[in-house]
Structure formats: structure tokens, C-alpha cells
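Aim 2 progress. For ChaN family lipoprotein, the working sequence is reproduced below.
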Amino acid sequence: MHPQRVQPFLRPLAVWLVLVLLSSFTAADKPAYRLFTATGKPADYDKMLRELATADVVFFGEQHNDPIGHWLELQLTNDLARLKQGQFVLGLEMLERDVQPLVDQYTTGELDDKAFEEQSRPWPNYATDYKPLLQLAKQQKFRVVGTNVPRRYASQVAKGSLTALNTLPAEEKAWIVPLPITVDYELPGYKNMAKMFGGDAAHAAGVQNIIQAQALKDATMAHFLNQARLDGQLLLHLNGSYHSDNHDGILAYLRQLNPKLKVLTVSTVSQENVNKLDKDNQQKADFVLAVPADMTKTY
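Predicted C-alpha cells for this construct:
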């Protein structure tokens, strides 16, 4: 058969083969993450970035050992700092209030890595997951604020209730939210904790103490992030997702302090299939970062 007579037949066949190959590659794709809106509609990073940049405060709820979440936190910190041009502050649950002078000295270059890490009680995954954020702050010259209560005080409350803080000296009380604080045990997150820890009569006192310790962290973080943010600034706060899921936890205390703030949230969830947001994960946050359940962990 003459080659020119074969071409009209081969051309559509070739196109069909290319389409089949492309579709097979798409079907075999294994995304490292997917972004969704609160209602489960697909979202992309640029859409999320543009919307978050309009907020006064953004909470990024992480899973502490998830590398994808940590990578996205770094990207978001970099991009929001760039967009806000000097009107950006980073708040971290992972740094406690009493080490704030060290944080300031490190991000301004007065303290080196070794000295900072020896004195600031960093989390075990600091080097891989949080140090890049502080290094970025040094480069771009934005402020980093540690917002969390020193862990020893949360531990005291978990063992003996909020009354354990009454005898603290004044200089130490400066590292926690002003006392007394009111714990709303009806907040959804705290009610869920009661169920998780067995809130029956036999365990009621112990469970209440655990919830009080969580409330101390939430209230302290709300107090200091609100204090750190100046008018016109955007504060990005990184914390465990349980502290901000469902606009609960820290946000409940922040609303009491400053109800006019525009607050947006991101939550990290783990799913077997990230192509569709599980119903249980909808409404957890304004944007939901879905990560495969078998994603490698940082610890």
C-alpha cells in the first residue's frame, strides 16, 4: 500500500494512542497532598494564598510529624511574608514564652545556632521542621513570637488543676495568660477530650485537670499572639491542628479578646484517598490539607 494512503488512517490512531497514554499516566499519579475548601471543593495553593493574605490572623493546624505540612508551612510563611512586605509576624506553639528573648536574639543574628538550641528547649524535630522557619525569619527580617505556656506549668495543671498556678511568683506569671481563666467545658474540642479520656465520675477530676491544661495552652497562645500582632499586620500561627480545628481551642479565647479580627484557618488531615475530602474532615477549617495516610513521618 502506498505510504500516502496509509497516513489518513494512522493519524487519528496516533492521536488516540497519545490520549490513552496520557490518561494512563494521570490515573497512575500519586499526589503528595490535595487542598480543599471547608465544604470539600478542590482548591489550589494560589487561591488559598490570596484568601489567607486578606486575614488578620491565620492558623495553620499541623500534624507535628507530617513532612508535607511542614513543607507547606515554610512555603506559606515565605509567600505571606513577601506579600505583606514588612507587615508579617510568625507565631509558633513550638516555642514557649520564657524563651522569647532567645528567639529575638537568634532571629536578629545575636545568638548562633548552637547557643539557641542549647537554651531554648526545642522540640525533637526542630532541626528538620522548625529551624528552616527561623532561618527564613533571619533572612527576611520578620518577627517570630513563641506563644505557648512553658510546658512545666501545663504539667502542673494536668496534675493538680489551675489552682497550682496561684502560688507562682509574679515574674513567672508573666509567661502565662493573666489569671484567672474561665474554662468552657462545653467547647466541642474539650467535650471530645472528655470522651477520649473517659469522663465518667471515677475519672472526672483527672479529666478536668487535663482539659484545664489544654485550656491554659489555648488561652496563653491566644493572649500572646493577640499581643504580638499590631494593627495592619498579618500573624501566621503554627500549632497542632487540635488547637484550631473547627475554629475552636485558641480561637475561642481569641474571639473573647478581639472579636473583630478576621481569622482564617488551615487544618492538616490524613486520609487513605486524598482525591476527595472525607466527610468527617469537612468544615474542620477554611482550607483543609489532605495528606496520604502512608506518608513518611518525620518521627
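The chain has twelve helices and eight strands. This observation will guide construct design in the next reporting period.
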